[in-house]
Design goal:
Elements (H helix, E strand, L loop, with lengths): L1 H13 L8 H18 L4 H4 L5 H5 L5 H4 L9 H22 L1 H26 L11 H14 L4 E4 L3 E4 H18 L7 H21 L1 H10 L36 E3 L8 E3 L12
């Protein structure tokens, strides 16, 4: 997992122009267009041409590998609009934090492993049952988990008037994944696990660092009213040349760790390879 994260970060660093800028905006707009056309189609044939169907894909309808994420969730226009706005809010913030390249890779990776799982199930069972359940539902919910991991204390209005931190909603999201895994029959119950795998590949290391005992003690130390810090004397040389602005690791303590400066932050802020594409940009 750590090797995968570093490989993605290196790729994004070497190819900063890779990806689709405002990817979630295009997906949301496409979902809205599909919803409007499907509402006018009384036969339901329009949606059927977009669904994931392995037998039809092998017959040449390759667009189904992409269009299954364009099918909106739910039928009520109000709920569809709320879902699309919420997913746009999450996706745009993740893109601003990770960068366009990493967010595009995140979404494409989620689509890829979902498609692979759908093909494996179809090859084993030769049943078309899985086709109707291969959607962007769990992928978008895993995107919500990623957002909550990076911004756990962000407040949203539940039912438009109840302020709640997004980390508590993420716990409900995780419980929903577990509930589906327990209640749904195979192979449908593994769909949230596949989506959670994508989340773990990109956020597992960051989450482990936040929850580690060392991080816990560092946070307690940072909140201490009398921090035991020793300021270097004026003119004295610091024992390190680079220090991560997120985790505090230095090149002196971790000589094999790569450090880079972020061009999108105001001022000169250095970050380690684990946080160069995973931090909140400094505005002042």
């Amino acid at each position: 997992m750590k090797f995968f994260t570093r490989a993605v970060d290196r790729f994004c660093y070497k190819h900063p122009r890779f990806g689709v800028q405002n990817l979630m905006l295009y997906i949301v707009i496409a979902n809205a267009v599909v919803y409007i056309f499907s509402a006018m189609d009384r036969t339901g044939s329009f949606i059927s041409y977009l669904r994931f169907a392995p037998s039809r894909i092998l017959a040449g309808e390759v667009w189904r590998l992409l269009t299954f994420v364009l099918i909106p969730e739910g039928g009520n226009p109000l709920f569809v609009a709320l879902f699309l706005y919420f997913y746009y809010f999450i996706g745009s913030n993740l893109e601003n934090t990770w960068g366009t390249a990493k967010f595009t890779i995140y979404y494409l990776t989620g689509m890829l492993i979902t498609v692979i799982y759908g093909f494996i199930v179809w090859l084993i069972t030769r049943s078309a049952l899985i086709s109707g359940y291969i959607t962007s539902h769990y992928l978008n919910l895993s995107m919500f988990l990623a957002f909550a991991t990076l911004y756990p204390d962000t407040q949203v209005l539940l039912f438009f008037f109840i302020p709640i931190k997004i980390k508590w909603l993420a716990l409900l999201d995780a419980f929903y994944f577990l509930l589906v895994f327990v209640i749904y029959p195979f192979p449908l119950n593994f769909l949230p696990i596949i989506a959670a795998l994508n989340y773990y590949l990109f956020c597992g290391g960051y989450l482990a660092g936040v929850l580690s005992p060392l991080k816990y003690h560092l946070r307690r130390y940072a909140k201490s009213p009398k921090p035991r810090t020793v300021k270097p004397k004026k003119g004295a040389q610091l024992p390190y040349s680079r220090k991560c602005s997120v985790c505090g690791r230095t090149d002196a303590d971790y000589p094999n760790l790569e450090f880079r400066y972020c061009s999108r932050c105001v001022g000169y802020h250095c970050f380690c390879e684990d946080h160069i594409n995973n931090h909140v940009h400094f505005k002042e």
